[in-house]
């Protein structure tokens, strides 16, 4: 409703084709964030409808609402003319709504056939008809043209093959409405082709397909229509024949640069860290430097190798080749401990899995890296522990009942402040922030950016990883673009356009998805 | 528009202490009830006896709690106790000074704990498996060393110790204090204690914050092994023999004590005073049931039921405070 161009296409009601699912003012609010602003959108039976948008645009929220994983805040969903609640995943499946997720959510330790019929096993006299199930599964797989065995353990297949099984599984359950969430992220080109063939076949059988992808070429290859989301707002829908990549990219990122990006100029000082032709699991041949007072931005899609690169710098994984220099001297960082001793600090990508001890108090989380320093002999200095925790809680304005409250009781933004705050008293010189503002509301974002300035003013350097282009674009002094484990381009502050950077990250036009083995 | 956040929780400041108090209240209640319902409960003799009965499990439970806080489990402690009675007996009978015999036995406990750490950290075995393996093989090694016989300890002074008392309190209970106080300081006032909790809560976050996760796991199992070996020495003193089949099932009593004392088997929640109280609650139930002439078989059933009830209510209360 923000874009003026919207009015050229008064939303749905194009062409014939019965509407199978209609969203009327569908909305989702979390505490502190408005994940999806009211959406009006109609999906037609038998169409392939692509949804594009940046990370955090609201795509996954939309999927969760449609598959009944989360309840909506308000609005109506009309399924075949009838309002539906979509309160549980079971209800969504019973209607015929299924999803194939980017990460395979099947049982790796069961056979392919067992996974295909999970929950709908072929049972006779109380016994599983294993042989019949394998036979039936194999028939389905063969029909779909996948050359895969049905009797092997799912975990023995590649991720891409598992993805194909997940798709095949979704087709055998009376599915009328199938959502693919970035299905090709881990597929080779050949596997992707098989998947596309499956999708076209489903379409021919009248199944409605929602196809979510970052890859423009796939959208243009498959979709009939495409809808754009941006910052939780539905921007518009286009017929694929009436639009082009440039327009979609513009719709995806078109924004007034909000005042939240706060960038002070600091003199760039000496080199803190230099990586020379560093290779490791998930990335190869990366060279870059970080200086005092500098923000180095790493932009790319999820899985482009950025997180792997920084965690390797941080000693979490072993490098396979290349050298790392710290203050001009070669260093061998073999563990996180080594990295922290040098003066690195990492605020990892996943708060829940890597950043926080959720069922422990806020204070303990904030102090975890500095217990050695605030101990006198064997004992922790209680006053130092309190002082340090209180200082961060008030300094960062962490909203909590106190340092004894559990980290799990805080909102996402405040949890993120803990992940960052625990390093502030540590005296680190190189801060690595991996997606620091994911799931964080605008106010907290601004606070986190101001914190960057404080760190820079103290002579620290920052590596900022983000999949959210405006963030790195507006903050980074040097911007490196990653694609599939390689550093493909480097820009200075505002020396390239959004479109160029996005294109570099998404892949050149001629390059096909998957590709490298 | 920053975070309207989730409604703030009430401070959990004295949460652990509060739970400790409710457990203490339960223990006192049991004592009061038993004092009124039996004539023999509230006698000095019986109280001393009760303290002796509970002491050894209490010490085991403290060691066990360190392990459980990291998210692990130590099934070997009962077997270590039995094995330690054998080594203590053999070493004392070989003519070594008692304190040397004790020291060597304690070192054996440390070695067993280090082995557990090695199995978990270096070999990637689940704690349940590696400690289960030690449980069965230690009993076997003990039986091989003794040919299945008990070894009588020929040192009266050593046996006197467990029967004696100091200012009216049994020596065995003093041992609980000897272990409990340093354990409390260790768990709640040193960084190693904090690291135990952080590893149990989220090992990856702890590692990325610079905590040496492997060392922390070694430490937890070593402490548990040490506590178990110490209890082995005490048991040898109390029964005057070394026998590898002693302390059968004590690992389960230690785990039960720990869980009754508020330790979460999922890790990251636990204290030192909780398991101590848990152990004495269990001891009181057994003692009281004996005095009330409850069938010994029923005692087991009652103990099991009580574990379910106590832990269930603890879970309810925990969820309730959220």
UniProtKB/TrEMBL annotation, chain A:
Coiled coil: none
Keywords: ATP-binding, Cell membrane, Membrane, Nucleotide-binding, Repeat, Sugar transport, Translocase, Transport
UniProt xrefs under PROSITE patterns: ABC_TRANSPORTER_1, ABC_TRANSPORTER_2
Entry keyword annotation includes Membrane: yes
SMART domains with a match to the protein in the record: AAA (SM00382)
Molecular functions per Gene Ontology: ATP binding
CDD domains, alphabetized: ABC_Carb_Monos_I, ABC_Carb_Monos_II
Presence of keyword Isomerase: no
Residues covered by the ABC transporter domain: 21-256, 260-509
InterPro entries membership: AAA+_ATPase, ABC_carbohydrate_import_ATPase, ABC_transporter-like_ATP-bd, ABC_transporter-like_CS, P-loop_NTPase
SUPFAM superfamilies xrefs: P-loop containing nucleoside triphosphate hydrolases
Gene3D superfamilies according to UniProt: P-loop containing nucleotide triphosphate hydrolases (3.40.50.300)
Name of a matching Pfam family: ABC_tran
Recorded family membership: Belongs to the ABC transporter superfamily.
Name the UniProt record assigns to this protein: Sugar ABC transporter ATP-binding protein
Organism: Mesorhizobium retamae
Lineage, highest ranks first: Bacteria, Pseudomonadati, Pseudomonadota, Alphaproteobacteria, Hyphomicrobiales
From TrEMBL, chain B:
Membrane topology category: Multi-pass membrane protein
Transmembrane domains' residue ranges: 54-84, 96-118, 124-145, 166-187, 217-237, 258-285, 297-316
Record keywords, A-Z: Cell membrane, Membrane, Transmembrane, Transmembrane helix
Subcellular location: Cell membrane
InterPro entries in alphabetical order: ABC_transp_permease
Protein name: ABC transporter permease
